[in-house]
């Protein structure tokens, strides 16, 4: 894994970032839905079953992140989203600055589990071309028992 990956925004992404920062200044970014059209928060329950899973770290398309799991991740904090937007705008957002967002992959998309709610929402809102994440895939057989 590289030591740094500073995100460079294209013109459309920069315009979207600027728009979202202005909306934050007007106190208009109080929910995930104020940034992205669709966000499951938290409509999908965490599984209470054990299964063997391999954790993968790789880049994914952030538009495939559909929400977070019930009981996981902290609530939405507009100031955290604004900080990430500011880092992106300033060219200071390093995808390896912290642990990658932790996700669970299901047939309908990725869900944030323990960490990365704000980074995932912002990456989806811009939208970034890719986001470096850590995820495990839930086997379909585990979902059949829900």
Key words describing this protein structure:
146 residues, alpha/beta, Conserved hypothetical protein from pyrococcus furiosus pfu- 392566-001, ParB domain, six-stranded mixed β-sheet
Q: What does this 3D model show about the protein?
A:
The chain has 146 residues and is α/β, with parallel strands linked by helices. It has one domain (11-40, 51-144): Conserved hypothetical protein from pyrococcus furiosus pfu- 392566-001, ParB domain (Alpha-Beta Complex), CATH 3.90.1530. Helix content is 29%, strand content 21%. It has four helices and six strands. It has helices spanning 11-25, 78-90, 117-125, 140-144; strands at 40-44, 56-60, 65-69, 102-106, 109-112, 131-137. The chain starts with 10 loop residues before the first helix and ends with a helix. The model has no long low-confidence stretch (mean pLDDT 87).
Task: Give a nutshell description of this structure.
By secondary structure, this protein is an alpha/beta fold. The chain has one domain: Conserved hypothetical protein from pyrococcus furiosus pfu- 392566-001, ParB domain.
Write the layout of secondary structure elements.
Blueprint lengths: L10 H15 L14 E5 L11 E5 L4 E5 L8 H13 L11 E5 L2 E4 L4 H9 L5 E7 L2 H5 L2
Parallel strand pairs: 1-3, 3-5, 4-6
Antiparallel strand pairs: 2-6, 4-5
Helix pairs in contact: 1-2, 2-3
Uncertain residue ranges: none
Strand content: 15-25%
**How is the quaternary structure best described?**
single chain
Structural class: alpha/beta
CATH class category: Alpha Beta
């Amino acid at each position: 894994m590289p030591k740094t990956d500073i995100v460079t925004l294209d013109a459309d992404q920069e315009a979207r970032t600027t728009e979202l920062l202005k909306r934050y200044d007007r106190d208009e970014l109080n929910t995930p839905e104020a940034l992205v059209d669709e966000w499951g928060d938290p409509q999908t329950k965490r599984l209470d079953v054990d299964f063997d899973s391999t954790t993968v770290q790789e880049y994914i398309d952030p538009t495939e992140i559909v929400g977070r799991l019930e009981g996981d991740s902290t609530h939405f904090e507009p100031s955290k989203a604004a900080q990430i937007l500011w880092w992106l705008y300033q060219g200071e957002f390093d995808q390896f600055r912290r642990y990658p967002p932790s996700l669970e992959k299901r047939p309908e998309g990725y869900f944030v589990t323990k960490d990365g709610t704000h980074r995932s929402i912002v990456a989806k809102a811009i939208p970034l071309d890719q986001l470096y994440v850590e995820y495990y895939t839930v086997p379909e057989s585990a979902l059949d028992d829900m």
